[in-house]
Inverse folding.
């Protein structure tokens, strides 16, 4: 069982930055994929960024060059640095731990980017 808690969301102007944090209740060392997703009302949840245990990262095309995912295995934390934010980045952002048995989700943190 992995409990995930996101923080760091808020209201920011377009062009600004936010850093999201995801704290896990257990070790994430053996969780191969730690991901960030986002969702807006009426739309499917969108994969934003993925990071492996070894630190390899992949991003959705819409955030490449602006967002950076990182993980600190010893602290059981995952981060999403979001720069050059746009109004279309407004969403609830979720942290997820992807395991072979099941996936675990946080409760989400709201990010609102004003124009």
């Amino acid at each position: 069982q992995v409990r995930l808690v996101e923080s760091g969301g808020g209201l920011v102007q377009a062009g600004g930055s936010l850093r999201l944090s995801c704290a896990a209740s257990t070790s994430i060392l053996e969780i191969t994929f730690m991901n960030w997703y986002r969702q807006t009302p009426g739309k499917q949840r969108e994969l934003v960024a993925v990071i492996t245990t070894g630190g390899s990262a992949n991003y959705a095309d819409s955030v490449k060059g602006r967002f950076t995912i990182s993980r600190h295995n010893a602290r059981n934390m995952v981060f999403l640095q979001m720069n050059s934010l746009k109004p279309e980045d407004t969403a609830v952002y979720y942290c997820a731990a992807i395991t072979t048995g099941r996936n675990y989700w946080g409760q989400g943190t709201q990010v609102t980017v004003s124009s």
Q: What stands out?
A: The chain has no helices and eleven strands. The CA atoms of residues 21 and 79 lie 5 Å apart.
